[in-house]
Design brief:
The structure is a homodimer. Chain A has about 220 residues and is of the alpha/beta class. The longest helix of chain A is centred in the last third of the chain and has 15 residues, at about 165-180. An eight-stranded mixed β-sheet of chain A has the order 3-2-1-4-5-8-9-10, sandwiched between helices. Chain A has a two-stranded antiparallel sheet with strand order 6-7. Chain A has helices spanning about 10-20, 35-40, 40-50, 60-65, 75-85, 85-90, 120-125, 140-145, 165-180, 190-195, 200-210, and strands spanning about 1-5, 25-30, 55, 65-70, 95, 100, 110, 130-135, 155-160, 180-185, 215-220. At the A-B interface, strand 7, helix 10, helix 11 and strand 11 of A face strand 7, helix 10, helix 11 and strand 11 of B.
């Protein structure tokens, strides 16, 4: 499938690399390709190992993808998606992996939007013709693409969004591609508040557990 | 042990009833005893079944308890604790079970405080001579006192607070009294932000799971 991964951080590299390894035609989107390649040695090194992944400006990557992942830093996601262009994203499924972390007051970060709104809702409002599905923001990049590395995959991925068919497409794809077994559909895109407000707990749990390679299982 | 349970809602009744059944000397604290008994038929009915539990004004209940639970509605907790009196709570361990839910804009509720502060921190600041331990706010009342009803008890209770000895006292007591097996210490009282910001996800999960009798297990 033609897939766009917007964002070049750890999560963007992990996700696009794993998708390319599965044979997908992946384009990574960034603000300024030349600047990225000349200044980000982590990315340059990664790119040498993933030559099949194209690196394009946000708009060209978005135009390429039939499925689009937003893995830009949450505080910069709206600007990145504006550059990607609503026309290039119209009619498509956008998986919003962003977390609106605010590091301006140090660690642990707060959220730039919370409680009565969320990044997922802001993105859906900014892109009314796009089917936004919030997913994968509640686990580390390494878990996103290899859920079996945690408890053999016996843990839950939360998803939400306004379009049921889009959610089913995303969960069935994550199952097929990465082996995700358990999903909890939390409802419409306003549940992005709940999924993003989980991040402070996720960060505390990472410290307590001693590794980002963990997840939670809902039990009853 | 002499225990005070501040709050007469479902969680307060469940907790104080379970503690009294274990043989503890429990006093339930409320703003106006007479008004409660004359207007709240749920409580009056419960009291007939739990005659060993005394019902006292907040201050008298707080003075009685060597251990104190705050299970008042989060939006009213600071006022309730002011009535309970800092002197009556000084030197004691206060388990803050409160969730600062804001129902003023309908369902699902937002939080009255979030992101850069929390109810747990507000309470600790208001009661500097009290050892505040945040716990039990992340599970339903029925799970609080009978964790084995969910997955045989194989799930996690999150705790935080500034005083390590107080946290150990609380977790060992919850283990002995109710059979809690697994705890995750999230750090100092500022982790109350994480524990309270989990509530929107808890509410979404309750809807998705179809019962409040659930919990989460941290897996790695």
């Amino acid at each position: 499938m033609d897939i766009a991964v917007l964002g070049t951080g750890m999560a963007g590299r992990t996700l696009s690399g794993a998708l390319a390894d599965l044979g997908h035609e992946v384009a990574v989107g960034t603000r300024d390709v030349e600047h990225l390649q000349q200044t980000n040695t982590d990315f340059a090194h990664w790119q040498q190992q993933h030559t099949a992944v194209r690196v394009l400006p946000f708009a060209d990557a978005a135009a390429h993808g039939l499925l689009v992942f937003n893995v830009t830093a949450g505080a910069a996601s709206l600007a990145a998606l504006e550059q990607a262009g609503a026309d290039n994203l119209a009619g498509k499924v956008l998986v919003d992996v962003g977390n609106p972390l605010d590091f301006s007051s140090g660690m642990p970060p707060a959220l730039t939007v919370a409680n009565t709104d969320s990044l997922g809702e802001q993105i859906q409002r900014a892109l009314p013709e796009t089917k936004v599905v919030k997913a994968l923001n509640t686990v580390n990049a390494g878990v996103m693409v290899a859920p079996a590395k945690v408890a053999g995959g016996d843990h839950d991925l939360f998803v939400c969004g306004n379009d049921n068919a889009a959610k089913t497409f995303v969960t069935s794809s994550l199952q097929e591609w990465f082996g995700w077994q358990r999903f909890v559909d939390l409802g419409d895109i306003s549940a992005a508040r709940a999924m993003e407000m989980y991040l402070p707990l996720w960060l505390r749990l990472m410290n307590a557990v001693g590794t980002p390679m963990f997840s939670v299982k809902v039990v009853r």
